Fold these 2 entries.
Entry 1:
Amino acid sequence: MQWKSQLHNLKAYQPGKTMEDVKEQFSLEKVVKLASNENPYGCSPQIQNFIYDYASSHAIYPDGYAKRLRMKVAGHLSVEPGQLIFGNGSDEVIQIISRALLDPSKSTVMAAPTFPQYKHNAIVEGAEVREVPLDEEGRHQLSKMLDSIDGTTAVVWLCSPNNPTGEYIRKEELLHFLDQVPSDVLVVLDEAYYEYVTAGDYYDSISLIESYPQLVVTRTFSKAYGLAGFRVGYGVGSRDVIGKLEPVREPFNNNSLGQGAAAEAMEDQAFIEQCREKNREGLQQFYEFCESTGLKYMKSQANFILIDFGLSGDEVFQYLMSKGYIVRSGGALGYPQSVRITVGSREQNEELISLMKEFLAVIKQS
Ligand SMILES: *Cc1c(COP(=O)(O)O)cnc(C)c1O
């Protein structure tokens, strides 16, 4: 077979252990997964009626234009319907952008560590990947990213709040970056955690599209909206940019159930506000734990926190898993001494924090 040469060293996505696996392996009754930044409160109860009503239309193809969802999102964001592209998760929007703009003659610039799918898709397309390290605080170094752009650069990926650090790009830096970046370079601002942001100085990224038509903002229904299983994400950009991306999209990439559930969920902004509030309180629990134990951590604008244990993150991960809490080891995320924890419910956070205290006590003795 004549595979693209870049595929020889590319690994398929490694899914973590399922809750069932962990239950069985450690003979546990209860397992809590705080590893993939899913919403511990589920999703808006308002989607239930839609789900039941839908039960009889499975033989019909979905609306390839996602009109109902499109109108809801356009209204919510005050953009035109033609400024939106929907994907099977924002993962697919990333894939569409990569497919549309990257090839072996192109380069693409991103931070490191950041969300791995930018790099993964760039490799599949054969483009040169230029990674610019985050600074000590887990923030993008936008001036260095600017320096890495040259005539071959087609796409720059920004992630704010950044996964896995939770840090966000500051407004002044973003504006300065957008002012400097060549106008034929597409800038993707991945805001998968936008709904969780509470920083007073965070920007209205959507409104920037008017002044910076090369900007595409991506968001998702997988995180705060609690619909990860339905796979719905979207990109917002100028009509020109979206119009160029649309032909690359599969015609029926969003299934009917996902479209409907997302449209219902968007109506219930009170649910999102409650989740944002509870997430803030949950982060506070973890901050207090870190302060009291002297562990280093990064202030987060997302629904997860990266905690530096100063020893193998894998070891912390293994210990917590054996007690029924699945978190994410920093090993695979570019922070081998850390774990990334999704903020859970108050009770889950409390239980996890006491397990981490227990772990620290065990470590001290040995
Ligand atoms: C989770 C995540 C996504 C992908 O979410 P989808 O489920 O594909 O919409 C994209 N970007 C970042 C930074 C994420 O953390």
Note: The chain has two domains: 5-43+270-365, 45-268.
Entry 2:
Amino acid sequence: MITAVLPTYNRTPMAFVSGKGSWLTAEDGSRYLDLGAGIAVNALGHAHPALVETLTEQAAKLWHVSNVYHIPEQERLAQALVEKTFADTVFFTNSGTETAELAIKMARKYHYDKGQPRAEIIAFEGAFHGRSTGAIAAAGSEKMVKGFGPLMPGFTHLPFGDHAALKAAIGPQTCAVIIEPIQGEGGVRTLPDACLKGLRDLCDQHGALLIFDEVQCGVGRTGRLFAHEWAGVAPDIMMVAKGIGGGFPLGAVLATENAASGMVAGTHGSTYGGNPLGCAVGAKVLEIISDDSFLAEVNRKGGLFRQGLESLVARHPKVFEAVRGQGLMLGLKCKATNTDVVKANYDQNLLTVAAADNVIRLLPALNIPDDDIAEALARLDRAATAVEA
Ligand SMILES: *Cc1c(COP(=O)(O)O)cnc(C)c1O
């Protein structure tokens, strides 16, 4: 049945009216502990005072100006990202999907300008890069592409983490390799450090650009500012969104000078991308999260949560199989049906998010208090007991 809002989501019947930290309040006044954080978006929880202040201050000054002018808030955030990462330059978008579009364009333009056009982009099964026609072609799964063809050509799909398959597929025709260091939608599947290193070496060997999609795993989520830092390898291009805006729609493509060399004036644009509101908020989010002591806390909290989850899995072997992930990007591989577990969690006023591979995701605010972690574990335990019954 058609509804006023296009029914592309299978929605749960809760509606929230306000939030504070890791808690959401529903229309009926009931409170929910939020381990979804808008799918890794509300990185500092709901209504963080510093973000509310930054947004309202900027809102009183200036919301939007065209990118035909200099935007100081945008330049400040770009400068901060350049200082804290491998990148030399940044383009701002309003979403993760848009970062996929630019990453693809940038990689193809790079080779075109070198006089040797290359179209092939290697991507991986289970990947999620967004919902544009380009991004679904990159992901390639039947679920996302069926009925939307013809798709953007040029993508090759390999099993996630299969080095031998990658070695066989990559060659002088390869424009780029695009990968999430930790797959989010795919089920919190972590690419081992050795694979990321091997990937970097193969790309260098064949002159292909390496694109990391850190839209979900970036911005402090794993306990480093960006997940690839754990492996000690850097990409040529990186996609960032979700957490960087703390809830304000904001994305960014970060790149080395070399990888970005084709993107000269007139080759790309965005009306809203890099607007003063989003960039003012993004700069505040980055300032808070990139602090070493903040990231150390994410690691400590991640360890604490993980320890509790390991014992939860041990207590409920019929419901859970294993803990996955790093820092506060956590997953529970389920033995029971993951959507049943998510529903049982709702019954405990606990919000978790299903993922592929029969996993539920726990993506709390990065500043979740220890008490809320303990409360979440108690609720997960009660929900698991209900699933067993
Ligand atoms: C969410 C997500 C995207 C798409 O971001 P949108 O803001 O929904 O367009 C792309 N890549 C990954 C890894 C994501 O998790």
Note: Residues 312 and 378 are 9 Å apart (CA to CA).
